Amino acid sequence: MMNLPLVFRGDHASFVVVGGGNIAQRKIRTLLQANCPLQVVAPELPHDLQQQILNSPQANWQARLADESLDFADAGFVVLATDNGELNQALATKARSEGRKVCRVDQTTDNDFIFPAVIDRSPVLVAVSTSGGSPALTRYLKERLEAFLPLEYADLGNLMQSLRERIKQKLPAKERAAFWRRWIHSNVPELVISRQPERAEALSEALIAGSEETCGEAYLVGAGPGDPDLLTFRALRLIQSADVVYYDRLVNPRILEFISPDAEKFYVGKAKSDHAVPQEGINQLLVKSAQQGKRVLRLKGGDPFIFGRGGEEIEELAEAGVPFQVVPGITAASGCASYSGIPLTHRDHAQSVRFVTGHLKDGTCNLPWHELIHPHQTLVIYMGLTGIPVICQQLMDHDMAADTPIALIEKGTLPDQKVHISTIADMPAYVAEHTLQAPTLTVIGSVVSLHEKLAWKS
Ligand code: SAH
What is the pTM for the complete model shown? Predict the structure, then answer.
């Protein structure tokens, strides 16, 4: 390591910033935020920054061009950001001869210190630096980390800070590290991040008293239609923190790789007419595992509240008094529509969209056919693949035009997605001749004609 990251107390680090351009302004804002004693020497500054400096008792602005006679007063750190390289050089030499540390923003090879990019969840700070070598990489890393660190990490940091003194008094030094490890791996951080402060505090108190709550928590999480990139941040966080996972067939195995290696994983089926565990069994399993104090993840394809029986599962959890969270996922209709270039609504084609299930019992289907036939409505049919002949025939019998376009989207959002386009008159024969694999979603309506123009995935 050639560089040394340190965290300074802002009010103990006094700065002079020379220059008022964009880069200087960014540094000034950072230093103001950290309450650093600050002197700015610049002929001009944007109005809002002037105001901020005026409102900060520890900061002042000299509105003038700097020259070589500049007096750095008692500042320990000097940021040189004028557009005059020679002046920067001369001021750097002077500042150093007076024992100050210098950052010149016009070059990267001769700095005593540089500013890292900061993800600010104060009191939690994450700093990223590529040692001045690749600002674009620094920004890229910062953006990625920003997305993975919810704002509530600030609350978590504050809570831990507020407990420190008590823990110090209660536990001998050699037990503290183990306590904090247990605490940070408990459900407290998740409760803080999902903004349940009372429960977080109760569990934290129980951990301190050594009488941990007996009941865990259940998470009903939508894993989206397949592409792991379509998971929500919250889904990913809960997948990574679960102690036990019950997942069904539609969940992409690549998503299961995010589960902690220490967690127990159970496949609870859901292939049509092959329920590895009957629904009542699943509901009871969730309740039982949570009551054992575990963090239980019920991972479902798409969105748990759209043809996912999510409602039934949490009903039992609610009845049993098990705390739970529900995390929405991208439903197959949205995922398949986007990845096949078929907008579900469009001002020229459809003002409404209807999601129905085409799951047939004994080859019959009791859908409200009359309601489904609407000139400006898109019809999305989940679980309809085997019923295609019946569905298309019924729609035509109820006066839907035989040339109405229909799309079957096979394995939507996955690398081997296939889109099959036809009309409701011809699709039954097409399906009979081709082998289509589940899961497949059916979209019917004039929006399907847009696929030709808007398809962006092969
Ligand atoms: N809760 C899920 C739907 C479960 S019903 C959701 O919100 O998406 C299962 C049906 O969803 C399948 O029969 C199929 O019609 C559809 N489906 C789910 N994932 C799909 C995918 N990746 N591609 C195409 N259809 C999919």
Answer: 0.78
Q: Which residues are near ligand 1 (CB < 6 Å)?
A: 225-226, 250, 300-303, 306-308, 331-332, 336, 382-383, 409, 411-413, 438-441
Q: How far apart are CA 406 and CA 402, in angstroms?
A: 10
Q: How far is CA 276 from CA 244, 268, 279, 316, 330, in A?
A: 17, 5, 9, 20, 24
Q: Hey, what amino acid is at 327?
A: V
Domain that holds residue 279: 215-330
Residue 410 Cα to ligand 1 midpoint, Å, equals 10
Residue range 30-76, pLDDT digits in tens: 999 999 999 999 999 999 999 999 999 999 999 999 999 999 999 99
Are 24 and 73 in the same domain? yes
Q: What single DSSP character describes residue 32?
A: H
Catalytic positions, please? 248, 270
Number of domain units in the chain: 4
Give Cα separations from 43 to 14, 20, 46, 62, 66 (angstroms): 21, 7, 11, 8, 8
Is residue 135 included in any domain, yes or no? Answer: no
Residue identifier of the C-alpha nearest atom 5 of ligand 1: 307
CA dist 456 and 256 (Å) reads 27
Terminal-residue alpha carbon distance, the chain: 46
DSSP three-state, residue 243? coil
pLDDT in tens, 131-186: 988 999 999 999 999 988 999 999 999 999 999 999 999 999 988 888 998 899 88
Task: Give the CATH number, domain containing residue 291.
Answer: 3.40.1010.10
Q: Which helix (H) or strand (E) holds 325?
A: strand 324-327
- Contact assessment for residue 411 and residue 417, using Cβ atoms and an 8 Å cutoff: yes
Task: Label residue 213 by pLDDT band (50, 70, 90).
Answer: low
Residue 119 tokens read as 């993800």
CA distances in angstroms from 209 to 47, 165, 166, 418, listed in the order given: 54, 15, 12, 57
The span from the CA of 225 to the CA of 335, in Å, is 6
- The 10 Å Cβ neighbour count of residue 71 is 10
The angle subtended at Cα 26 by Cα 23 and Cα 29, nearest 5°, is 150
Answer whether the bond into residue 225 is a cis peptide, omega within 30°: no
User: Which helix (H) or strand (E) covers residue 442, if one does?
Assistant: strand 440-444
Dist. CA 301 → ligand 1 center (Å): 7
User: Ligand 1, closest atom to CA 359?
Assistant: 13
Based on the number of CB atoms within 10 Å of its own CB, is 213 exposed (0-12), middle (13-18) or buried (19 or more)? middle
